[in-house]
């Protein structure tokens, strides 16, 4: 029979905790050297954690924190257990206030080790539990926790102003020398690159529209354009399968009818002028195969993201960063993502607010642009002018607040097709003809065009920009003369 291994205590250093607290009580100036990276929950001893929290609270409020003033904040039961005398012992155990940073580092290192053990224990328990979670989900959750722990393990020393200024000047100089003056990632769409200067690192770009405007197709056009320019792109698809996304890409990049890639048919006109479905031929197949071969040399990863959480998106993005780097994340779309702890609250506004904040945090933490697709509310449908506004953003005002760029996709032709003029009661032929002629003119002008309306941009202008739109392939591009 194998002997049981002896239980081991979790890493902690109570002496370092005591000497650190004593140093702080003896000289409050020592707090300045540790406030940037030490928190109360880093202490292993609960009593020490409470004392450090009290010291921090007083010093952050501009008050004195010594054994006398802190004694007044002790709960009655702790005073009865000798808490006041313990404060004096801490001061007596202090070696030197100048050692505070070193003691704090020891305390934090012990906390770091405890967290690693906790994560490993939780991973072990979940892995042993049959049928509870898929192995990949367990792994992704563990990766996410470890990555967050690594980010918190070292204090942020901040960026000196002259370093930040130098980075900005260098980016501006590169932009001046680059085609189109881009400071960020090029998409190949002048409607985006021209007004934004390219997708900037750490930026959160919200692309919103009503259904059937073509959000997914535009997002794929952006992804393909960036990948063509050697960017590494991760496309998170919650609305469509990877195969369906592949069909959209094949049709768009090959400039063939969307149904050719989706269902293997094209529509041809009969002698009587009516359209009928016919099987695709060699021309369509060859065009799509050529597009596929071109994509094989680029990095555009499609992920259906299970589970549908931003933690899973982060884990997937970090994996790509480790594998070879990542330049852009696109999420299609926000309405299908969930916050597990809020999923049953029936408070969608709160959930969307949390998701929006996490999208911005992810862009900043990973230092890459993140494009998030969102669906607008029904506001435009009730207006004569269907162009979206910021008031049409769905579920939460946090979307407008958090996003660095908010752009709306709008196709006037979509609405015009559905509202051909009909005779009004008592209307004369002349007035009906005038309205019909105006409608036909608008139809011709809007055919093959779309608008990307920039409603917000922190670092640039706002306003509409024109895009080419091919109804056959459901694909976007530059208008003639706008090629980037």
Describe the overall structure.
The chain has 484 residues and is an alpha/beta fold. The protein has 2 domains: 14-132, DNAb Helicase, Chain A, CATH 1.10.860; 181-266 and 279-421 and 431-477, P-loop containing nucleotide triphosphate hydrolases (Rossmann fold). 48% of the residues lie in helices and 13% in strands. It has helices spanning 14-26, 46-60, 67-71, 76-80, 83-93, 100-128, 135-153, 161-177, 190-196, 215-228, 242-254, 258-262, 282-296, 310-323, 348-366, 398-402, 412-417, 429-446, and strands at residues 204-209, 232-237, 265-269, 275-279, 299-303, 328-332, 370-375, 405-410, 449-457, 463-470, 475-477. Strands 5-2-6-7-1-8-9-10-11 form a 9-stranded mixed beta sheet, with helices on both faces. It has a two-stranded antiparallel ribbon with strand order 3-4. Strand 3 (265-269) and strand 4 form a beta hairpin. The N and C termini lie far apart (74 Å). The model has no long low-confidence stretch (mean pLDDT 84).
Strand order of the largest sheet: 5-2-6-7-1-8-9-10-11
| Largest sheet, strands/sense/barrel | 9 strands, mixed
- Total number of domains: 2
Q: Give the full name of the CATH homologous superfamily of the largest domain.
A: P-loop containing nucleotide triphosphate hydrolases
Question: Low-confidence parts, pLDDT < 50 over ≥5 residues?
Answer: none
Topology, please?
Blueprint: H1 14-26, H2 46-60, H3 67-71, H4 76-80, H5 83-93, H6 100-128, H7 135-153, H8 161-177, H9 190-196, E1 204-209, H10 215-228, E2 232-237, H11 242-254, H12 258-262, E3 265-269, E4 275-279, H13 282-296, E5 299-303, H14 310-323, E6 328-332, H15 348-366, E7 370-375, H16 398-402, E8 405-410, H17 412-417, H18 429-446, E9 449-457, E10 463-470, E11 475-477
Parallel strand pairs: 1-7, 1-8, 2-5, 2-6, 6-7
Antiparallel strand pairs: 3-4, 8-9, 9-10, 10-11
């Amino acid at each position: 029979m194998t002997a049981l291994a002896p239980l081991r205590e979790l890493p902690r250093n109570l002496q370092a905790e005591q000497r650190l607290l004593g140093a702080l009580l003896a000289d409050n100036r020592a707090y300045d050297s540790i406030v940037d990276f030490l928190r109360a929950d880093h202490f292993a001893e609960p009593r020490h954690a409470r004392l450090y929290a009290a010291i921090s609270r007083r010093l952050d409020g501009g008050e004195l924190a010594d054994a006398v003033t802190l004694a007044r904040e002790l709960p009655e039961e702790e005073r009865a257990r000798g808490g006041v005398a313990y404060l004096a012992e801490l001061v007596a155990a202090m070696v030197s206030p100048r050692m505070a940073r070193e003691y704090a580092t020891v305390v934090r290192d012990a906390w770091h080790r405890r967290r690693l053990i906790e994560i490993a224990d939780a991973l072990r328990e979940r892995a042993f539990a049959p049928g509870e979670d898929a192995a990949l989900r367990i792994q992704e959750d563990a990766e996410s926790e470890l990555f967050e722990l690594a980010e918190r393990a070292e204090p942020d020393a901040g960026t000196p102003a002259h370093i930040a200024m130098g980075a900005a000047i260098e980016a501006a100089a590169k932009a001046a020398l680059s085609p189109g003056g881009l400071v960020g990632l090029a998409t190949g769409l002048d409607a985006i690159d021209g007004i934004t200067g390219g997708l900037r690192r750490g930026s959160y770009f919200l692309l919103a529209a009503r259904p059937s405007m073509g959000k997914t197709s535009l997002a794929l056009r952006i992804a393909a354009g960036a990948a063509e320019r050697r960017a590494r792109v991760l496309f998170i698809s919650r609305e469509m399968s990877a195969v369906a996304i592949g069909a959209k890409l094949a049709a768009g990049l090959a400039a063939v009818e969307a149904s050719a890639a989706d269902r293997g048919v094209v529509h041809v006109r009969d002698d009587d002028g009516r359209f009928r479905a016919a099987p695709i031929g060699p021309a369509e197949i060859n065009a799509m195969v050529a597009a596929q071969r071109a994509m094989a040399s680029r990095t555009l990863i499609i992920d259906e993201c299970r589970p549908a959480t931003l933690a899973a998106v982060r884990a997937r993005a970090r994996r790509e960063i480790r594998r070879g780097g990542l330049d852009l994340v696109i999420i299609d779309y926000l309405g299908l993502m969930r916050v597990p702890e809020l999923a049953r609250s029936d408070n969608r506004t709160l959930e969307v607010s949390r998701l929006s904040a996490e999208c911005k945090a992810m862009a900043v933490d990973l230092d890459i642009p993140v494009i998030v697709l969102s669906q607008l509310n029904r506001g435009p449908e009730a207006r004569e002018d269907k162009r979206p506004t910021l008031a049409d953003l769905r579920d939460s005002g946090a979307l407008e607040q958090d996003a660095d760029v908010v752009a709306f996709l709008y196709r006037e032709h979509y609405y015009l097709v559905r509202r051909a003029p009909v005779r009004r009661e008592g209307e004369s032929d002349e007035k009906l003809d005038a309205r019909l002629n105006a409608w036909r003119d608008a139809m011709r002008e809007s055919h093959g065009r779309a608008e990307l309306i920039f409603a917000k941009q922190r670092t640039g202008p706002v306003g509409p920009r024109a895009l080419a739109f091919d109804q056959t392939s459901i694909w976007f591009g530059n208008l003639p003369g706008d090629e980037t």
